[in-house]
Write a structure and sequence with these properties.
Helices cover about 75% and strands about 0% of the residues. The chain is mainly α and about 170 residues long. It has one domain. Helix 5 (about 110-120) packs across helix 7. The longest helix is centred in the middle third of the chain and has 29 residues, at about 55-85. It is elongated, with a radius of gyration of 21 Å. The termini are far apart.
Length: about 170
C-alpha cells in the first residue's frame, strides 16, 4: 500500500481576504459608524446642559467637536465599506479617520479640566468621585491618542494592508 500524496503546504499568507487586524479595524469602523449615527440621531439631553456649564473657549471647542461628528460618521462608513471591498481608499480613509481622532484628542487636552468641572454634577449622581473623574478623563484621551497612533502605524507599515487593499 502506498500512502496518499500530500500536497506541499504553501507558507505564503493568503492576502485575498480581509483577515487579522485589518478585519478588526473594518469591524471597528462599522461600530464607530453605528455609534456615531445613533448619537447624532438621538442626542442626549445633557449635551445642551453641558454646553451651558462650560467656559466660553471650551464651549467653542465643544461646538466644533460636535460638528466634527457630522464629518466623521460618513468617513467611518466609507472606511468600513472600502476595507471590506478591498479598495485602496480604505487605507487612506483609515489614516484620515485616525489622524482626525488624534487632532480631536489634542484639541481637548487643554480643556479637560473644564470638561470635568462641567460634568461634575452628572458624575456625582452616578457615584464617581471628582478626583477619579479627572483621572478617567485623561486616561480616556491618552488611550484614544495611543490607539490612533498604533492604528496609523499599522496602516502605514502592514503587509496585509499593502497586499489586501489593492483595488
Amino acid at each position: 500500500m502506498t500512502s496518499p500524496q500530500v500536497s506541499q503546504v504553501n507558507d505564503k499568507p493568503d492576502y485575498t481576504k480581509v483577515r487579522g487586524w485589518l478585519l478588526v479595524f473594518g469591524v471597528f469602523a462599522g461600530y464607530q459608524f453605528l455609534s456615531g449615527a445613533a448619537s447624532l440621531l438621538f442626542p442626549p439631553d445633557t449635551q445642551h446642559d453641558l454646553t451651558q456649564r462650560l467656559p466660553a473657549e471650551a464651549a467653542k471647542v465643544y461646538a466644533v467637536t460636535q460638528h466634527f461628528a457630522y464629518v466623521m460618521v460618513p468617513v467611518y462608513l466609507a472606511q468600513c465599506v472600502a476595507i471590506f471591498r478591498r479598495l485602496r481608499m480604505g487605507r487612506t480613509l483609515s489614516l484620515v479617520a485616525n489622524l482626525l481622532v488624534m487632532l480631536h484628542g489634542l484639541a481637548w487636552l487643554p480643556f479637560m479640566g473644564d470638561l470635568v468641572e462641567a460634568t461634575k454634577p452628572a458624575s456625582l449622581s452616578s457615584g464617581i468621585q471628582p478626583a477619579n473623574m479627572v483621572v478617567l478623563a485623561y486616561v480616556a484621551v491618552f488611550v484614544s491618542l495611543a490607539s490612533s497612533v498604533l492604528a496609523v502605524l499599522y496602516f502605514l507599515r502592514s503587509e496585509r494592508v499593502k497586499q489586501t487593499l489593492v483595488n
